[in-house]
Fold each of these.
Amino acid sequence: MTEPDLGSLLEMLYAYQGSAILMGSHELGIYEVLSNGPLNAQETASALGSAPRSTMLLMNACVALGLLHKIGDEYANSPLAADFLVPGKPGYLGRVVTKEQEFYQPWGRVSHAVREDKAQLPPMTARLEKTPDTARNFLLALHDLGLLNATALPDHIDLTGHKKLLDVGGGVGTFSILLAERNPELRAVVMDLPQVRELAEQTIASCGLGDRIEFQAGDYNAPSLGEGYDVVLLSNILHDNTEESCRQLLAKSYRTLVEGGLVVINEFFLSQDGASPPVGAIFSLLMMLENQGAAEYPVEQIKGWLLEAGFVDPVAHRLPDPSPMVVVVARRG
Ligand SMILES: C[S@@+](CC[C@H](N)C(=O)[O-])C[C@H]1O[C@@H](n2cnc3c(N)ncnc32)[C@H](O)[C@@H]1O
């Protein structure tokens, strides 16, 4: 890594302002309104119900960031905004933008979190109960991110001859869907908290896989995850948990599998020293902010836990750039 200079330091310092402009303009609905054609600031403000002067200042800042173009006194979505920030477009990332807004304030409390070693968000169970809309958006954003970062995951897992997969903390079923689409004989059970059922069943049905993927309400902290599976998938689960919980999850996964069954782990790649690549190291800190006692774990540490749980032949595959993910597969001997 080249040593950062003063310019990079200032860029780091002010980067939050760009995030705030992106999130605020999306929340107001500027990109949606402009998807019908260019408007001036006054017209945009009328459509949004916002103050004209402030709307103009925000839109000028969006132009400066390349999110809008300005022609005369009219504003139009830039190609980037038109592709990714307009609801209803196939590449729409609005749910991810809204999810990041949820994390914006916890990031602002990072020094407090580090001083106290204390997560800044309530556990998922409480978020599903107390702020269900935010939690639902979070789950759907993870689906969008899964499709963005890990569509290559099925290329790295040979599930020939495997018939029954347990997707632990499977969310809305993203990875069961990707694997079932690739492996026509595979059936899957998406196990997640009961409040996730409706969203998962809708997502699975919308992919036409309701006959092969079922949702099962459950708690992965329970003593057993079930039995008779020949694949257990833990996608983005270890990083939500403490080291001790990860070890327990892997031991329970082992007991859930039939002989020769596979455990498949999908995680952000993190180097052995925990400090690279930047996306992995920063994600690890985010996990500390989100879940009490959690972090991202280096691949070698995960492989060590797998061996300790009795698995054999753990192999890690980095997903192709720009995906930040790594898939670790091991077998119950
Ligand atoms: C980071 S998300 C991962 C979702 C999905 N596997 C993916 O890769 O996108 C963690 C998931 O675990 C679920 N979860 C959290 N605590 C759980 C528990 N105790 N038992 C079952 N599921 C849980 C959450 O509802 C959420 O869907």
Note: The CA atoms of residues 191 and 216 lie 5 Å apart.
Amino acid sequence: MSENKEIEIMQSVYDKNDEVAARINSELTQSGIYAINVMGAPGAGKTTSLIQIVKRLNDVTPYVIEGDIEADFDTKTLQALGIKAIQINTGGACHLDSPLIGKAVEDLGIKNGVLFIENIGNLVCPAEFMIGEHAKMLISTVTEGSDKPYKYPLAFEKADIILLNKCDLIPYIDFDEDFFMKGVRALNKTAPVIKVSGKTEEGFDKVVSWIMDKLNA
Ligand SMILES: Nc1nc2c(ncn2[C@@H]2O[C@H](COP(=O)(O)OP(=O)(O)O)[C@@H](O)[C@H]2O)c(=O)[nH]1
Ligand SMILES: [Mg+2]
């Protein structure tokens, strides 16, 4: 009995979140914004990748919403590069939700461009909550190990594009790319997996070309 009740409450939390997410998504679309929910573990290189992507966007205006439990280092870094960015601090919550994004989108006042939403560093909860995005970008890294698709399936299953970051470090570690890709493809047949490095900058031209295709579609 008590177990049933718990499931019902969670369902209504998800329903409410998804309802707001759908509204944000349609408002963003009407404003000419393509929104990408950027997910990955703490330190996977979410902010580093955003910097690499943004500097290749040319004529497209980037906007960033930074999600962190505490602090605003990433927002300050992006603002110092001239990027329109604002911070959300969840004060403990392990993921962003759509009411938080609705308020941030209003505050940003954006039109025509790409909105990147850097989610809280976490491979679990962010994948469960829609936040008004058009696509989910998952950043996984070679230093996390090749077993992550098997251990955190939902994030890999839901991703529309997967960046495999820190490829500059492959010579120094025991990353098994075949095992990683087998795990990814068992969950997700279609998302492109792009090998990148925030250090050597390899791969980011391909990522930007995927984004531009989506934007123009
Ligand atoms: N070697 C290497 N380090 C990276 C790469 N990408 C990010 N880093 C480093 O990893 C750390 C975390 O990066 P950050 O972008 O802040 O990760 P976030 O927490 O996911 O936003 C920083 O010290 C980065 O310089 C990469 O491709 N290769
Ligand atoms: Mg960051």
Note: The pocket of guanosine-5'-diphosphate (ligand 1) is lined by residues 40, 42-48, 121, 165-166, 168-169, 197-199 (CB under 6 Å).
Amino acid sequence: MEPPQPKDATTALLDQFFAGSGEDVLAEQGLPEGFRSGYVAFIGRPNVGKSTLMNCFLEQRIAIVTPKPQTTRRKTLGILNTDNYQVVMLDTPGIMEPKYALHEAMIEEAMSALEDADVIVYLVEATRAPEILPALEATKTPKILAVNKVDRVPQKNELLPILEGYAATGLFDEILPICALSGDGVGELLGAVLARLPEAPALYPREQISEQPERFFVAEIVRERIFRRYEQEVPYSTEVLVTRFDERGTHKDFIEATIFVETDSQKAIVIGKRGVAIKELGEDARDSIEAFLDREVFLSLRVKTMPKWRKKANSLRKLGYKQR
Ligand SMILES: Nc1nc2c(ncn2[C@@H]2O[C@H](COP(=O)(O)OP(=O)(O)OP(=O)(O)O)[C@@H](O)[C@H]2O)c(=O)[nH]1
Ligand SMILES: [Mg+2]
């Protein structure tokens, strides 16, 4: 008979988690009995309010929000920490018919969130025709329907048939009307999510609010300002990467963000006559970045043409999109 092998660190940790010693782990983390934690994915069509909802839960703006559809392009984590639970929220790009490789990468981000989720919150707009995404029917994960933007429904009794229509699908464990903008109904939604999260120790350090680094959020803020300032194809043809982020001790941090566009004419639009447009963009973005980081920064913007980046797998890879 072979002598017992010494356990490696991973096996010992797994034993600790699965050998009925969950309470020990809770105690070690200083967490109360009954502590819950898990992943909740916000899924839906573009523009339904997924990012607004995540910010509302966090009571902080971390996900970018604009009036234009297809704002969010990457799965973005937001962690809600209290003494009794840790809800790891996954904001996702809106699901649409893919026209470019970029859209496929965006849908992939949403699908990976769907796979990770302990609970799915499917968001729809109260004033849009009811619709169920096929990806929802294909998963057994508990699903809550959040009917958002109820402030846009003039008569509250108009809501009832909409809610009943969705209930008739039998797909949802719970259906709740909400207004992510004002926070109405969001407490009830949190309760419905918590009821379906497993009792488990915290998944992330409890002071953490996201997983993505500061430079990701800085690039997102520049992109948000572009979405809000420019029209037509420019926002959609734009990607932003933080290409330098130097912390300089007593001086302000130096941040260089590179704005990639698809054509030279878009580059000219972003820069504007005599550089006026990009100067205003820079000031606007810097103010938002400083508010987000809670410190002063020096922001330098560069614009580069990367032809057809939305359609090319290798350009998307360079810009950090995962490819299947
Ligand atoms: N009236 C109203 N507007 C809302 C509500 N929630 C979100 N919005 C607005 O809807 C627009 C889109 O919101 P987002 O949070 O960016 O939507 P999203 O689902 O993340 O959009 P994508 O990232 O493009 O998929 C913004 O102008 C929001 O201010 C709401 O409850 N009521
Ligand atoms: Mg969004």
Note: Residues 1-7, 16-21 have pLDDT under 50 and may be disordered.
Amino acid sequence: MKAFQNLTWKEAEARIKGGLVVILPVGSTEAHGLHLPLATDVMISEEMAWRAAVKLQARQIDALVLPPIAYSVTDFSKAFSGTISIKQETATAMIRDICSSLYEQGVKLVVIANSHLEPLHIQSINAAIEQVKTASGHRVAFPDKRKRRWAEKLTEEFRRGDCHAGAYETSLVMVARPELVREAVRQQLEPVTISIAEKIREGARSFIEAGGKDAYFGNPREASCEEGESSYQALSDMLVEAVMEALAQRAT
Ligand SMILES: [Zn+2]
């Protein structure tokens, strides 16, 4: 059993009393190229969360995965059909309220597993964490995979910043939900070697402005299950390390 929502309330009560760690997968509903589903970030966050829960259980830390957040600030891909963007304050309020509700019940630690990397979205998470801390003193663990410490364990394409629906994310979906990758389309896609991170620094405010007319960057043709497996290994280790550090800090 790894899903929090499949517990009964009595089971939840017992697990929380025993010192439960919960992982909140955070994704988005947004365009991911011509070959990946809108739910790409949700699937990636859930898969890394599942794997981290298994690793934590193996270390005798009781951990469960929460129902995911599938709506976020996605202004960069607003021009593409199917993308659902919410306001920054809505995103912050939702994450803050979920964490506060869990801490009020006595959950030991909430950790955020995030895969959507738009700057305003990351800001909405950090603001939520600040508000929880100010209101209750509780700390939410949030390893930000863009930080060098974690990014250096991920792929070169990810670090270059052309990481939206390219080889990195495509490989992760190929492992988690292979049936949802439009394989024939993927094999025809030309690489888009543009760093979104760099374009954002130069002032781009949308994927179109950054040069991604089909809502992907990087090279989806280079994706493989092997790469996906090794990225999940790094992403789940990142969550486990963040939990271990937060628990150690809590003990002092
Ligand atoms: Zn994504």
Note: Strands lie at 21-26, 63-65, 109-114, 140-141.
